[in-house]
Input
Amino acid sequence: MTIAAHRQLTRAHGELDDAARARADTEIFLHAHMAALRAAAAVTAGSSATGRRRLRSVWEQLAERGGPWEPWAERFAAGAPIRAGIESGQLDSLPPGRAAAALAAAGEFVAAVERELDGRAATLVPWTMAPSADRFGRAFARDGHGAAKAS
Output
């Protein structure tokens, strides 16, 4: 998983946490939608467009990846106007259950993104660093996850 993808997933989890603490349905919906948006950004992180292209939403970019991402992209793209209405103050309430459904979907989507990105990371050779010594002469190496461990 790239650093950019990891950052986006961390932010997605923060949005899910904020949604879980929120009381108003509109606030829950906003945080859930932002969590999904951050997770989609994690999927598309590192993909570079060549040449001059028009700006596209993360949902369009996700849908272009095809496969299991298309239904997620359609689902959350449909929620974008709701999010815009809430943010602009033009929408101050939601139908019963809409916020809870958005939060559940966002949680499922974040988990799906993590499974996919973790699966990709598992196929890579873990980064390791040659052993070195600290100022006390203790040798240290890095495990496959970048954490220092005494040897």
Summary: Residues 3 and 45 are 9 Å apart (CA to CA). The longest helix spans residues 98-122. The beta strands are 132-133, 139-142, 148-150. The mean pLDDT is 81.
